[in-house]
Fold Glutathione S-transferase E14.
Amino acid sequence: MSEAKPILYYDDRSPPVRSCLILIKLLAIDVELRFVDLFKGDQFEKDFIALNPQHSVPVLVHGDLVLTDSHAILIHLAEKFDAAGTLWPRQHDARMLVLNRLLFECSFLFRRDSDFMSEIARKGFANVDVSYHERKLTEAYGIMEQYLEGQDYMAGEQLTLADISIVTTLSTVHLMFRLTRYPRLERWFAAMQQLDAYAANCRGLEKLRQTMERIGDFQFPPTSNSQTPAD
């Protein structure tokens, strides 16, 4: 009997969702996608609350398993579908380093990005202390710059779930705050953008940019290396 197809509930404007979409594309996983419009309140519908009381995306349903955190989803999909075993390393110490970076992304980088974007949505951009958020977010840039000292990726010399999780949030922060003072981080980001699977990030990132500009009544700074949304 064949295993049930995974179902991903998503809104690709969400950075954690986009990390899952990158991994799905990278590993060519056959997944059913179900859109949940966060900006229309679909996450508060009764059926979705029954599935995920946290009323957030992504949510992965895989058979009887329901996962409501992007990092758990990434780990699950890697364990199930990454035959090479490199994205979520089998060796204990290497795996723990990847886990450490995943926890940095969710508790530090994403939290600060979410605080910034949420404040724009609540107050409008004109009423946000941008310099405060710049200090908080560029502190995260400095930490990642240090992570990349002497290595090409966030958790060593090969691509892992750490890079996939971090890059979608970083690309969101990068809409506002550039990387020019962080050369290692800038090189890493450029290399990540060259991955074929990175196309799964682009469409949702552009949709987020347009949504935030409309809600916040402002425009993000122009950039010469902006990515074209994926078809």
About this structure: The beta strands are 7-10, 32-35, 59-62, 65-67. Confidence is low (pLDDT under 50) at residues 225-231. The radius of gyration is 17 Å.
